[in-house]
Protein backbone atom coordinates (compact mmCIF):
# COMPACT_ATOMS: atom_id res chain seq x y z
CA UNK A 1 0.00 0.00 0.00
CA UNK A 2 1.33 3.42 -0.97
CA UNK A 3 1.67 5.78 2.01
CA UNK A 4 -0.41 8.95 1.99
CA UNK A 5 1.70 11.96 1.00
CA UNK A 6 2.34 14.38 3.83
CA UNK A 7 0.50 17.72 3.87
CA UNK A 8 2.05 20.42 1.70
CA UNK A 9 1.85 24.16 2.37
CA UNK A 10 2.97 26.33 -0.55
CA UNK A 11 3.42 30.06 -0.05
CA UNK A 12 4.01 32.43 -2.93
CA UNK A 13 4.83 36.10 -2.73
CA UNK A 14 5.13 36.42 -6.49
CA UNK A 15 2.56 37.86 -8.84
CA UNK A 16 2.81 39.12 -12.38
CA UNK A 17 6.02 40.84 -11.27
CA UNK A 18 7.71 37.41 -11.16
CA UNK A 19 5.62 35.18 -13.43
CA UNK A 20 7.91 32.15 -13.40
CA UNK A 21 8.08 32.00 -9.61
CA UNK A 22 4.31 32.46 -9.31
CA UNK A 23 3.62 29.78 -11.90
CA UNK A 24 6.05 27.38 -10.20
CA UNK A 25 4.21 27.72 -6.91
CA UNK A 26 0.84 27.01 -8.52
CA UNK A 27 2.28 24.15 -10.62
CA UNK A 28 3.92 22.43 -7.65
CA UNK A 29 0.76 22.83 -5.55
CA UNK A 30 -1.40 21.41 -8.36
CA UNK A 31 1.01 18.51 -8.94
CA UNK A 32 0.87 17.68 -5.23
CA UNK A 33 -2.95 17.69 -5.34
CA UNK A 34 -2.78 15.32 -8.32
CA UNK A 35 -0.46 13.08 -6.28
CA UNK A 36 -3.07 12.87 -3.54
CA UNK A 37 -1.52 15.27 -1.05
CA UNK A 38 -3.47 17.63 1.16
CA UNK A 39 -2.42 21.02 -0.22
CA UNK A 40 -2.74 24.54 1.12
CA UNK A 41 -1.68 27.40 -1.18
CA UNK A 42 -1.02 30.76 0.44
CA UNK A 43 -1.19 33.92 -1.67
CA UNK A 44 0.93 36.65 -0.09
CA UNK A 45 2.47 39.87 -1.34
CA UNK A 46 1.76 40.49 -5.01
CA UNK A 47 0.20 37.04 -5.46
CA UNK A 48 -2.75 38.23 -3.33
CA UNK A 49 -4.19 39.72 -6.54
CA UNK A 50 -4.74 36.18 -7.90
CA UNK A 51 -7.49 35.74 -5.29
CA UNK A 52 -9.68 38.14 -7.25
CA UNK A 53 -11.93 37.02 -10.13
CA UNK A 54 -10.16 37.17 -13.48
CA UNK A 55 -6.76 38.19 -12.14
CA UNK A 56 -5.06 34.79 -12.65
CA UNK A 57 -5.64 35.20 -16.40
CA UNK A 58 -3.28 38.18 -16.29
CA UNK A 59 -0.31 35.88 -15.81
CA UNK A 60 0.67 34.46 -19.18
CA UNK A 61 3.77 32.32 -19.34
CA UNK A 62 4.99 30.41 -22.37
CA UNK A 63 5.18 26.61 -21.96
CA UNK A 64 3.16 26.71 -18.73
CA UNK A 65 -0.29 25.52 -17.80
CA UNK A 66 -2.55 28.59 -17.67
CA UNK A 67 -2.80 29.90 -14.13
CA UNK A 68 -6.64 29.92 -14.11
CA UNK A 69 -6.61 26.14 -14.74
CA UNK A 70 -4.20 25.54 -11.88
CA UNK A 71 -6.18 27.83 -9.58
CA UNK A 72 -9.44 26.06 -10.43
CA UNK A 73 -7.89 22.70 -9.53
CA UNK A 74 -6.53 24.04 -6.26
CA UNK A 75 -9.87 25.58 -5.34
CA UNK A 76 -11.63 22.30 -6.09
CA UNK A 77 -9.16 19.88 -4.50
CA UNK A 78 -7.03 21.92 -2.10
CA UNK A 79 -7.21 25.05 0.00
CA UNK A 80 -6.36 28.58 -1.18
CA UNK A 81 -5.75 31.37 1.31
CA UNK A 82 -4.91 35.01 0.85
CA UNK A 83 -2.91 36.66 3.62
CA UNK A 84 -4.97 39.02 5.78
CA UNK A 85 -2.38 41.80 5.90
CA UNK A 86 -1.48 41.44 2.22
CA UNK A 87 -5.15 41.69 1.28
CA UNK A 88 -5.70 44.71 3.52
CA UNK A 89 -2.69 46.55 2.05
CA UNK A 90 -4.22 46.09 -1.39
CA UNK A 91 -7.80 46.96 -0.41
CA UNK A 92 -8.95 43.35 -0.96
CA UNK A 93 -11.78 42.16 1.30
CA UNK A 94 -13.25 38.71 1.92
CA UNK A 95 -16.20 39.78 -0.24
CA UNK A 96 -13.88 40.48 -3.19
CA UNK A 97 -12.16 37.11 -3.48
CA UNK A 98 -13.14 34.11 -5.56
CA UNK A 99 -15.56 31.61 -4.01
CA UNK A 100 -13.56 29.13 -1.98
CA UNK A 101 -10.67 31.48 -1.19
CA UNK A 102 -10.32 32.28 2.49
CA UNK A 103 -8.61 35.25 4.09
CA UNK A 104 -6.43 34.29 7.05
CA UNK A 105 -3.37 35.47 8.89
CA UNK A 106 -0.01 34.38 10.20
CA UNK A 107 -1.39 32.32 13.09
CA UNK A 108 -3.24 30.04 10.65
CA UNK A 109 -0.17 29.78 8.41
CA UNK A 110 1.99 28.79 11.38
CA UNK A 111 -0.62 26.27 12.53
CA UNK A 112 -0.62 24.62 9.09
CA UNK A 113 3.15 24.53 8.75
CA UNK A 114 3.70 23.11 12.24
CA UNK A 115 1.36 20.16 11.73
CA UNK A 116 3.07 16.80 12.08
CA UNK A 117 4.77 15.75 8.83
CA UNK A 118 3.84 18.99 7.04
CA UNK A 119 6.17 20.25 4.34
CA UNK A 120 6.30 23.96 3.55
CA UNK A 121 7.66 25.55 0.36
CA UNK A 122 8.02 29.25 -0.31
CA UNK A 123 8.25 30.79 -3.78
Automatic annotation (TrEMBL):
Pfam families given in the database record: DsrE
Highest taxon, organism lineage: Bacteria
SUPFAM superfamilies the UniProt entry points to: DsrEFH-like (SSF75169)
The name this protein goes by in its record: Sulfur reduction protein DsrE
Provenance organism: Cellulomonas shaoxiangyii
Source taxonomy: Bacteria, Bacillati, Actinomycetota, Actinomycetes, Micrococcales
